[in-house]
Design brief:
Elements: H1 2-26, E1 28-37, E2 40-41, E3 46-51, E4 54-60, E5 66-71, E6 76-82, E7 87-94, E8 104-108, E9 111-113, E10 123-124, E11 130-135, E12 140-143, H2 145-169
Parallel strand pairs: 1-8, 1-9, 7-10, 7-11
Antiparallel strand pairs: 1-2, 1-5, 3-4, 3-6, 6-7, 11-12
Amino acid sequence: MKITAIIKKITVSAAIILFAHFQAISDGLVVKGKVFNRSTPIKGATVKLYEDVDLIKTIETSAKGMYKFKLELNTVYYMEISYPNHIVKIIKIDTNVPVSGENRHKYDFNVKLFSLYGQEQNAAFNKPAAKINYNPRKDHFTFDKQYNRMIKKELREYKKLIYENWLAAK
């Protein structure tokens, strides 16, 4: 009789531990999307994930231009997307969420890379092209629209400068 009770306690304890383990695995933010050049998916684009300045993972996009990362909450990440002869883009992802908030999130984010007009080296736009963070009013992750409006103008000017430099070099 005592052995049966012990086995039940062990079984219940194991179930609780497994549940907690799988719950912890599912917590976080899944970021996925496609990398494009105009409307064409880019196969083999390099997507690097940094935690602060430390590189933690590098992947290549699939044949359909897809990428996917699982991020821990309450951390700031930078995603760097590159492809030969294209402007390198950086995306800032702030996964900080309120303690009382949901712990499982997903965010789909497509990235459009721009050609360097035949130049052989990649050029980096040194500011994040977008910022993604948790919006408590909407209770999910979203991109910073105000920052996006500001940075779009700077990106246009940067692309124009690269194009003008390319024309001058011809």
